[in-house]
Amino acid sequence: MSHGSERGSPFRLIPVIDLRRGQVVRARAGERDAYAPIDTPLARGSAPADIARALLDAVGGDRLYVADLDAIMEGAEPDRASLEAVACACPGVTLWVDAGFSDLPGTERFGRLGLGRPVIGSESQHDAGLVRALGDRAVLSLDSRGTERLGPDALHDDARIWPEDVIVMTLARVGAGTGPDLSGISRAIALGQGRRIYAAGGVRGPQDVEDLARAGAAGALVASAIHDGRLSRTLSGSG
């Protein structure tokens, strides 16, 4: 995208797909059990490779966020077949993959597959050890639901252990069209002291993108607003 934050770097719009049982599902207010296979005007069916390609064609960019819900919710192994299909369909695109990583061996095992950069969700952590061990090899997701911060307080409060890329994931706003959590984003930006902070949840369209860029966010993770046509190359100014 061509929008700039106050820090002078371009604002990055990152499309999102949520995987469940080998299909892409539609996120609604973070209630993962209720997610159903996606129905989108951008593509036929709900095959991960087709949806991923369609989202990237709609807004451009070279990153895609993938939430593997079976791994996050049930402790399953990452959906390697779906990730390989997406990677094949999207050459040159870096995948940010949240697959419920909670220990170093499993995360490093995923890293050896060469299928993307692991996202460490605070909701899946018992302590800050994995985030400390991985450093900038991973992306940190600071997860919350409503006013409840998920995972160890240290991950939310001690920016010294944050990697260079941090997502502020407000689950109750995902797919809900309620607007991003600007106060939470601003807090993380102030605390992060130069880390790249990305918003996830609630982005409705170009005005929210402008507000986030003005606040200093590095980018936003978006799905519903792209599927619904409220964000596109033309509307967002991405190239």
UniProtKB/TrEMBL annotation:
Keywords: Amino-acid biosynthesis, Histidine biosynthesis. InterPro entries: Aldolase_TIM (IPR013785), His_biosynth (IPR006062), RibuloseP-bd_barrel (IPR011060). Gene3D superfamilies: Aldolase class I. It holds the Pfam family His_biosynth. Pathway: Amino-acid biosynthesis. Coiled coil: none annotated. Belongs to the HisA/HisF family. This is HisA/HisF-related TIM barrel protein. It comes from Methylorubrum rhodesianum.
